[in-house]
Amino acid sequence: MEDVIRRRAIVHGAVQGVGFRFSTEGEADRIGLAGYVRNRFDGTVEVEAEGEPHDVEKLLRWLRDGGPSSARVERVDVSELGPTGDAGFETRH
Q1: Which one from 8, 38, 39, 64 is the annotated catalytic residue?
Q2: Cα separation of 7 and 58, whole Å?
Q3: Is 30 a catalytic residue?
Q4: CATH code, residues 5-82
C-alpha cells in the first residue's frame, strides 16, 4: 500500500448553491477517500481529502476540471497537510 497523504483544496468561483458539496462528497466516496467538504464564509469551498496519492490526485483533478456541471471553478489552491486518520468523507456545515 502506498503512503497516505492529505491535501486541502480551496475552490474559487461560482461554487456555492450549485450542489458542489453534495457532488464532491459523492465523488470522494466513489474514489474511496476520507475527509470533508464545507462552504466557507468568503464564498469558496474547502475540501480536505486523505488517501493514497493517486486517489487524492483523482479528486483534485475532478475539482480542477470544474466539479459538478452546475459549478464554475475559477481556480483551486492546494496545500499539503499531514494525515489525520479520518474514516469516511463528510459534508460539514
Answers
A1: 39
A2: 12
A3: no
A4: 3.30.70.100
